[in-house]
Design goal:
Helix content: 25-40%
Structural class: alpha/beta
Strand content: 15-25%
Shape: globular
Number of domains: 1
């Protein structure tokens, strides 16, 4: 599917509700991974979702892609913040592409990202919170170049966000997950934050909790309408 904003693969809903368009779940992979990685999670998620897994725009190696370049050093991460912002903006354009390209409910679009994909998901939500029905961030962090916008405080009100992180994560240590918790906890979002005895990965326990959270969001009243 190379004629889209981003190359991507899809998994169509395994169950449809008569008279309703399916909700969309857009998956964003981590650095040096690809669009096929997170698609493997689709069978474990609510069967009403139209799942779209995107390939990041930067080629880092054979079958390896990223949203921005990053170096892992002994003193921390070295990244191109401007490139990261461009990656986030590409995600936002891709979301609009999905709304127009596929028969999905434009009011029920969720983002779910792992690692660098989590960073992009949270960054996109902080810019356009009302574009999303919910956000799932797995094992990521916040970037200085993508802070919350005080002018959007009212738009953040009620935005459902779930953040999960492993206490044994050696790639993005747990302190970064807790920084997400502390930063988003100051906003009027509906935040669910959980830690697990896992490394830099998705465990069965975390995935089951994510699926329960997503299902609850699908069955709940639209937060945007409720907060209008």
């Amino acid at each position: 599917m190379n004629d889209s904003t981003l190359h991507h693969v899809i998994s169509e809903p395994r169950r449809t509700v008569p008279g309703e368009l399916p909700p969309a779940l857009i998956l964003l992979h981590g650095v040096r991974s690809n669009e096929n990685d997170l698609l493997g999670l689709a069978p474990a998620l609510d069967d009403r979702f139209f799942v779209i897994s995107a390939r990041a725009p930067l080629t880092l190696g054979p079958g390896q892609y990223g949203w921005y370049h990053v170096e892992f050093t002994s003193t921390g991460y070295v990244i191109d913040e401007e490139e990261a912002v461009r990656g986030r903006d590409t995600v936002l354009r891709f979301v609009e592409d999905i709304r127009s390209r596929y028969p999905v409910d434009p009011g029920r679009v969720f983002l779910m990202g792992f690692s660098q994909g989590c960073i992009m998901s949270l960054g996109a939500a902080l810019v356009q919170p009302r574009s999303f029905a919910g956000i799932v961030g797995m094992s990521g962090r916040l970037l200085d170049s993508m802070p919350p916008d005080p002018a959007k405080t009212d738009e953040y009100k009620g935005l459902p966000i779930m953040v999960v992180h492993g206490i044994r994560d050696g790639v993005i240590p747990i302190q970064y997950g807790r920084e997400i918790r502390d930063t988003l906890g100051k906003l009027p979002v509906e935040l669910s934050y959980r830690e697990y005895p896992m490394a830099h990965n998705v465990s069965n326990e975390s995935l089951n909790d994510i699926n329960r959270w997503l299902t609850a969001r699908l069955n709940a009243e639209d937060w945007r309408a409720a907060g209008a």
